[in-house]
Amino acid sequence: MVRLWEAATGRPVAVLAGHTGTVAAASWSPDGKTLATGGQDTTVKLWAVARGIEIANFTGHTDWVRDVSWSPDGTMLASASFDATTKLWDAATGKELAILKGHMGAVISLSWSPDGKTLVSGSADKTVKLWDVALLR
Fold first, then answer.
1. Reading across the β-sheet that carries 53-58, which strands appear in turn?
2. pLDDT of res. 26
3. Which residue in 22, 61, 122, 124 is deepest, having the highest Cβ count within 10 Å?
4. What is the per-residue pLDDT for 7?
5. pLDDT attached to residue 3
6. CA geometry: angle at 133 spanning 2 and 42, to 5°?
7. What domains are defined for the chain?
8. What does the H/E/C string look like for the chain?
9. Distant-in-sequence, close-in-space partners of 116: CB < 8 Å, separation ≥ 6
10. d(CA 103, CA 128)
11. Beta-sheet pairing, 107-112 with 44-48
């Protein structure tokens, strides 16, 4: 469950119920309208926060989703998992675009380059990998 609070007043704004386990990751879309979350239930969910509803559910990881990160233009979403993979998703359709394999341990962090052409992943295997994702566009 994800609870959203208004920072200035501490007033609860919304409860986003849908994950069946711990939520380990959250990331706002670049336009600020959609929240991506991931966690123990191995799914990535997209939420229309203004309406308080789940609008998409991406499945395919086989272990916890540890991080989620939007491309700078908001068209792609990356998810990092304890299953040692990073998945790239079309944010509009939910289609899995790629599975990035190469880490020998859990993938725990993600970040996009400002131009959206490169994704970096950090892993429990003590490595950082740079992925050229420009070809997937």
1. 23-28, 34-39, 44-48, 53-58
2. 94
3. 61
4. 85
5. 76
6. 30
7. 23-136 (2.130.10.10)
8. CEEEECCCCCCEEEEECCCCCCEEEEEECCCCCEEEEEECCCCEEEEECCCCEEEEEECCCCCCEEEEEECCCCCEEEEEECCCEEEEEECCCCCEEEEEECCCCCEEEEEECCCCCEEEEEECCCCEEEEECHHHC
9. 71, 72, 73, 76, 133, 134
10. 9
11. unpaired
* Main-chain phi, psi angles of 136, to 5 degrees: -85, -5
Q: Which two tokens stand for residue 121?
A: 């992943």
pTM listed for this prediction: 0.90
- The one-letter amino acid code at 137 reads R
How far apart (Å, rounded) are the C-alpha atoms in residues 114 and 118?
A: 8
Q: Which two tokens stand for residue 31?
A: 């336009």
